[in-house]
Queue: 2 jobs
Job 1
Amino acid sequence: MGKTIIISNRLPVQLQISNGAITAIPSVGGLATGMKSVHSGGDSLWIGWSGLTEEDISPELEPKIDVALAEHGSSKVKLTEEEVDGFYYGFSNRTIWPLFHYFLEYSEFQLDYWNTYKKVNQKFADAILENAEDGDTIWVHDYQLMLVPQMVRKERPNVSIGFFLHIPFPSFEIFRTLPWREELLKGVLGSDLIGFHTYDYERHFLSSVRRLLGLEVSFNDISMGDRLIKVDSFPMGIDYNKFSDAAKIHYNKAESEQSELQQRLNTHKKTDPEAKFFLSIDRLDYSKGIAKRLYAFEYFLNKYPQYKEKVRLIILAVPSRSNVPQYQLLKREIDELVGRINGEFSTVSWTPIWYFYRSMPFENLIDLYTSSDIAWLTPLRDGMNLVAKEYIATRTDKTGVLILSEMAGSANEMNESLLINPNNFEQTADALHEAINMPVEEQKARNSILQKRLARYNVEKWANDFMTSLKSQNEREAANVSR
Ligand code: ADP
Ligand code: G6P
């Protein structure tokens, strides 16, 4: 049996150099955190970008970098600063990301970004070609590498290629605005199996394939010459046990073993057992709706003034893509909103919003999940949203309420949460009110169902389902060709 190669822009860790020493920090984002669990259990090779540019890497450092990555079963694709600008900050995050999240007005159509995207996709494809042999399985991930499947297929027709998109695939009306729409579709169609988080994304993709390329689509099969390509949805799960086990450890910690954050949160709980913590965790990204959430919080405090001094919103925003102007503007907007709302509502003994702009170690993430009565996750558009699933997994006593946006892919599997439209402040404020007053028995009933589902459809099952489907697709194709 051949080997498996995972390829994505991000690796499980990102490298940083300080004072000549290399440090590896865990990558954030659903792709890296999810795939890390799959990768650590097997003997696959993971190829991607280390986070450093060629200009950062001196000849003396290079072997050390290779060793640091090898410890994580990874190998690097080298990118120059100019390539990172055009490919990562440019076409990936200033063209595709906004467009696929329905922020059409943010999407920039620049030929030089496109050219760099093509060039860098070829670099990733070349890295695969150096390592792959006939019979191997290649799993390509996400919007940064949409051209890679076809680039590999052209040179190595006898490898098996799967592609998974971790973000939404937009409706045809949005996708058609992209000048390079046919090229992107043809790139992805180099795969044998194409996976999405939800059936809607799958349907949008098939509609674009039919209308833009005129290919025959029957149910979820695409015919392209003598090839048969399968498209399907595989909602990504989490490493459920990792989160629930960590939560159990958290609850049993003696005070002296607790983190400062846990101690601080506990002290607040003890001082006022009626007080409620609302939790908001995301990368600082406009698609996550953090600014809208702040406006909705202000609306809630005005509509239900009885909760002043009783509720606290904890915002953890992880720095992300800070070279892109829209992210810089958003950071400023959020800083100002937090300042304004705290300025308007704070009292001597109460600050309504605690705002952290940083990445946190896993233990602190668990502290926040386990200490929060309500998780308030309301992206304007989100491929999946794993944070929602992680929150539920840590609620080992089954209490807690999840308020989730209908626009998150995870909403399809989390009907027992309070689903809201993040643009509707009235509905959001009422959902917060309902969550605060939800009887414990009802919380437990809802969370029991959610937990069972999440424990069953975990990330391992997701990866296995994808790989099994890819294998059976290869068998179908082989039978199709020999007919
Ligand atoms: P996205 O992939 O768009 O960032 P997801 O909610 O799907 O959104 O995934 C976010 C992932 O990043 C989760 O697995 C979460 O645990 C992790 N994460 C979120 N915030 C932090 C943080 N402050 N520090 C470390 N990891 C984080
Ligand atoms: C989303 C994307 C991933 C990406 C992650 C973090 O989850 O689907 O591909 O890795 O965000 O973003 P970054 O730009 O830091 O890789």
Job 2
Amino acid sequence: IIMKVIVAENASELGKQAFKLLAEAVAGGAKTLGLATGSSPVELYQEIVASDLDFTDMTSINLDEYVGLAPDNVQSYHYFMQEHLFKFKPFKASYVPDGLAKDVQAECDRYNQLIKDNPIDLQVLGIGQNGHIAFNEPGTPFDSVTHEVDLTESTIQANSRFFDSIDEVPKSAICMGISNIMTAKEILLIAKGKNKAKAVKDMLEGPITEAVPASVLQKHPHVTVVLDQDAASLL
Ligand code: GLP
């Protein structure tokens, strides 16, 4: 294993460890944070909210958003970020892809430009059960940039737990590409739970392959992986 791995006792410890790394990056002058949604970063955001960190001079850029969901839709990633972080810790500017964009390609182009203009100092990431990062599913080229992604059946299934019914889960998303993610100076990947153990093992110990999108991180010079015991159980 070439990436740095931290195994935390439990979810709250994991949040504290991840927070420590993020706070160090901020103290070191980080100006732009790449942020993620999902259950993985929730404890990290709780620690941030409870801290005295001040982001009012900083920029945030989120990884992805569902196509078709308005920012005030409770299932949207805009809403998630608002509720978990932004309403407590506002940034100077916060960017999330516009799920309602009429011209999705133009929105992807705008997003790529945003990332160029605001190089990401620290990118927070989760990992999908199939090794996806953001919504970059297995098979996504490593040189991909922001694009519209058709969600796989397994991701729709996994994310349906947040929706009233599986039919309500959007079928596509706007998502940073793998090469956008790799431009971040530092990456902090968080994974919790037994259902992530296989993906974590493949990411850290398997071959670098587009079949496991997260395996690309073996090529990044500054990644820290923070796990709970369950996610680390196959290492
Ligand atoms: C979704 C998100 C990913 C996230 C993954 C895992 O598909 N687009 O960014 O990492 O699911 O989610 P969770 O952290 O809830 O397990």
